[in-house]
Amino acid sequence: MNDNLIAANPLDRVKLNRLLPKEAKRVDYEVDPFSAAEIKAIIANAKPQERNMFLFAFTTGVRPTAHTALKWSSVDLVENTVRVERARVVRITRDETKTDSGRRTIDLRRGALQALLDQRQYTLLEGDLVFHDPFHNADWQDSSRVSTKWNSVLKKAGVRHRVLYQTRHTFASTLLSSGVNLLYVAKQMGHKDTTMVHLRKMARTG
What we know:
Blueprint: H1 11-19, H2 21-27, H3 36-45, H4 48-60, H5 64-67, E1 75-76, E2 81-84, E3 87-89, E4 92-94, E5 104-107, H6 110-123, E6 132-133, E7 138-139, H7 143-157, H8 166-177, H9 182-189
Antiparallel strand pairs: 1-2, 2-5, 3-4, 6-7
Helix pairs in contact: 1-8, 3-4, 3-7, 4-6, 4-8
């Protein structure tokens, strides 16, 4: 997990605001990634199944509606990839994503792979959905239930409140801080906008 959760460069927030401008406007908040220390605290204070889901979110950048809809049939633990191809909204899993480019195959980096390996014992033989609400031992019924659990973990961890969607921005920030190719970041996050390539030329000193 440590290789993917490094401290962010302050300039990455500028990059993220250009990388994800439409998303930031849609959800009506500023891009505000979690730090490595905050991520560690969140993971440490979450119960096992919740920890696996939150770690997966931090290390893949998938939208909350996508990771709650993830099925084992979309996971390839041989090639270390996951197909993002459906979303769960208002208790209904749809075989579609938020955008056409959002339907994609992503790489499982170390933290995401470990989250799935750890999750197998809980849900692999319990149906196709990967992540379950451990309280009901069934799928997460709606986003409010996920948000309630997320907020509870943040409070327990002593981490300043931000919505779960910020895990997506945190993932992008982590890759940018690591010097990963911007087009790769776009592909992993399901963005089609090729103008992001110009961000490579931004200065790295403040």
